[in-house]
Amino acid sequence: MKILVAVKRVIDYSVRVRLKPDRTGVVTEGVKMSINPFDEIALEEALRIRERGEATEVVVVSVGSAEVQTQLRSALAMGADRAIHVETGEALEPLWVAHILHALVGEIGPGLVILGKQAIDDDLGQTGPMLAALWGRPQATFVSKLTLEGSSARAVREVDHGLETLDFDLPAVVTTDLRLNTPRFIKMPDIMKARQKPLETRPLDAFGLDLPRLAIERLEPPPERAAGIRVETVAELVTRLHERGAV
Amino acid sequence: MPDDGSLHYDVLVIGAGPAGLACAITLKRACPSRSVAVLEKAASLGAHSLSGAVIEPGFVDELLPGWREEPLDIQVPVVRDQFAYLTSGRAWTLPTPPTMHNHGNVIISLGALVRRLGARAESLGVEIFPGFAGAVPLWSGEGALAGVRVGDAGRLRDGSEGPHFTPGVDVRAPVTVVAEGCRGSLAKELIRHFGLDRGKEPQTYGLGLKELWQLAPGRSRAGTVLHTVGWPLPHETYGGGFVYHLDQDRLAIGFVVGLDYHDPDFSPFEAFQQFKHHPSLQGLFAGGEILSAGARSLIEGGYGALPTLEMPGGLLVGDAAGTLNVPKIKGVHMALGSGILAAEHLARTGSPQGFDEAFRRSPLGRELHRVRNIRPGFRGGLFPGLANAAFETLTRGLAPWTLANRTDWKSLRPKTAARPGSPKALVRTLPPLDRLAFVDFAANRHEENQPVHLQVADPGICISQCMERYGNPCTRFCPAAVYEIVTDARGPRLQINAANCVHCKACDIKDPYEIITWVPPEGGSGPSYANL
C-alpha cells in the first residue's frame, strides 16, 4: 500500500503575523516558514505505518512556489520516499489543491491519503473533506488515533461530546489532530540522504484545471483588546460586574 | 564514510553567519572538490543574526556578484551621516568622526544578507545544516581539534532521554573553522583549552539591542544614519544609540552599551527604551508599529585582545575571534573578510598553521591594529575617550603604546558604593513597555521541557553573596528577563526562564562571579529574527 501525504508551507507558528501596510496580504519577507504542524503529524503517522510494515511507500506532495522544495526536502529527511512539487506562484484555495491531489491519487493509487486537519495560516480545514468528496471515498477528520486492519481502518476522533470511533474501508482520506503523535527529530545523516531522494516538479498547468477563484479584497487585523483592570477586593469585583451588567 | 554514524567533511564550519558563509563560499569556489559543511544553531538561516547594520559592501560584491541588482529585504545606500551628543532635553550635533563616515556604505539587514549568502553557498555545493548546534569539540589522537559533536535532541528537563531522544552525531573534519559569532560557546572553550588568549589583553564586550519599526507614512528619511553618545548613559559608561532610516517607511533603531559598565543597577533594556523617548526621536514613532526586536553581544576587545587565530585542527574567524572594528562600529566587513582570508589560506596551505600571521599582516589586520587604542581610551569616560579617539585618529594609530582593556565581569561596583547620579528617567509610552513584551517581538521558540541551557555553577552564590554585594545584576542586564529572584517558603532563589533567552550571551560575559555558562540549547531553539 502507498500513502500520499500533503504538506503545506506556512508561516512558522512562532512568528508574529503582520499585515502588509496596504492590507492586501500578510508580510512574508524575512519570515520563518515551516511545514504546517498538522501536516508534519500526518507525515509522521504515514512513516509509522510504513515502519510497521503496513505500507510500502510514502509519497509527499506540496503545491506552491519553488521555495516549498525546502519543506519537501525536510519531509524527505523525516523519511518520506519521494516528493512531488506542483509549482505555481499563486496561493491556491482548497478546492484547487483537492483537485490536484485527486489527480495525483488517480495516478499513484494510494490506499490512504493523510493530511493535516487544517493549515495554521488560513485555518480552513477544507482540503481533506473536498478530496474525499471528489474521490468518492470515506473520510475521517480530526483523527487522534489510527489503526489499520487489512483493507479497513479504525479512527478515533475528538468531538465536542467525547471520543468518536469510526470504522471505514480503504482507500480513504484521514486528517490529523494534534494528539495523534509527536513528529520525530530530523537527523543530520537523513538530511544528506534526502538530497538523493527523488523530488519531481510539475507545473500547475499540467493538471489542466479551470476552476473559479476567490479574490481577496482587503485584510483587517483583529480589533485590539482593551487592557484589563485590577480590583482589590471581591466586593469591588462584584460591584464592577454589576455595573457592566455581567451578573 | 565509516558506519559509526559520524559524518566526515574536508572542512567543517561552525556557524552560518557572515564569517562562516564567506569562508565556505570562498573555499568551495577555490576547491570545488573539497567537501564543506556548515552547522547553524538557528532553525533557519539568518534567524539568529542581528546587527545594525551599516556595512562596507566591498566583500559582498566579491561574494555575491550582482547582489545590488536584486536587493535584499533591507538594502538602503547611506546618503547622510549624523553624529549627536544627547542631553535629556536636547540633541547637540557634533562633527561626525572620520571613522564613522559612511559614504558608499549600505544599510542592510544582516539576516537578509545571511540568507542570500546561504543560498549562494548551497548553489556551490556547500552543505548547510540549520537547526544543529556544535555542542562539544572532538579531539584527534594527537590532541588536535577534529570536529564537533552536535547537541542531542529530545532530552528532558532533568537531562534524561525523552521518548524522541535523538543523540547528536559526530561531525569530523581535519579542519574546523569556528565562526560562531561573539562569545561562541565552542570558541570560548577552545581559546581556554589551547591558551589562545595567553599574553593578550582581556577580551571586552558590548551589548546591543535593536528594534525594527514600520513608521507612519512619510516619517522616514531613507538613507539617513544617526549615531549618538551621551544621555541616557552616564559619562562613565561607554555606548550610544543608532537610528537608521530605511525605505518603505521602515526604521532600525538600537542601543549599544559597553559591558564594562560599573553600576549594578544599570539596565541596558531600560537605557534603550529611554533613548527611544528622547525628545528628538520620540516623534518618529507616532502612528508606527514595532515589527521585531532582539539583542546580541558585540566583541569590542579589538587588536589587543585578539586571540591567536589558529590552533591544531582549527581556526577562529569573525566575531568568534573578535575582529569587529569598534571605532567604525562595523563588524560585518571584517567577518566576511576574515572568512575569505581563512578560506584562501586553507586553499593555499590546507592547514590552519600560519593563519594568525596571515590575518595580522593582511589589510584587515592592519585596519584593526590602527584603531587598537580607541575603545580602551573610553575607560576614563566619554570626554577623555573622545579626546583620545581624536588623537589616535590623527596619528593613525602610530603611537608606540597599546592601551589596556578591563575585564567586563570585574567592573561592577558594589551596590553600596557611592555612584554618580543617574540621569533622570522619562516616562515611557512606546512599546515594548517591558522585557517580556520585547522578547515577544523576538519570536522565540524553545521546547520548554529541555534541560536549562544557562548553567549556573553554584546558585547558592546568587543568594549568599551576589544579592547583598551587587543586588543580582543578572535580573537587570539580561535583555530578555531570563533571570528572576523569586521568594517562596524556603526563601529567595534564582529562577531561570530559559525559554526567553535570545542567545545574546550577556550573562556569560557580565555575571560578576563568572558562574553562568551559556551552552547551546536543543538545535533550532531561540529567536526567529525577521530582518534584524
Structure description:
- The complex is a heterodimer of chains A (247) and B (532).
- Chain A is an alpha/beta fold.
- Chain A has a single domain (2-222), classed as HUPs (Rossmann fold), CATH 3.40.50.620.
- Chain A contains 6 helices and 11 strands.
- Chain A has helices at residues 37-51, 68-78, 94-108, 127-135, 188-194, 234-243, and strands spanning 2-6, 9-11, 33-35, 57-64, 82-87, 112-116, 139-149, 152-159, 162-169, 172-176, 199-203.
- In chain A, the strands form 2 sheets. Chain A has a 9-stranded mixed beta sheet, with helices on both faces.
- Chain A is globular and about 65 Å long.
- By secondary structure, chain B is α+β, with helices and mostly antiparallel strands.
- Among the domains of chain B are: 7-64 and 112-202 and 305-370, 3-Layer(bba) Sandwich (FAD/NAD(P)-binding domain), CATH 3.50.50; 435-518, 2-Layer Sandwich (Alpha-Beta Plaits).
- In chain B, strands 7-6-17-18-19-16-20 form a 7-stranded mixed beta sheet.
- In chain B, strand 12 (153-155) and strand 13 form a beta hairpin.
- In chain B, helix 1 (18-30) runs parallel beside helix 8 (332-349).
- The longest helix of chain B is centred in the middle third of the chain and has 18 residues, at 332-349.
- The mean pLDDT of chain B is 94.
- Chain A binds chain B through residues 12-16, 18, 21, 29-33, 182, 184-189, 191-192, and chain B through 5, 7, 43-44, 46-47, 73, 109, 111-112, 115, 127, 129, 131-132, 150, 153-154, 163-164, 166, 169, 171, 214, 217, 248-249, 289, 291-292, 440-441, 443-445, 528, 530-531.
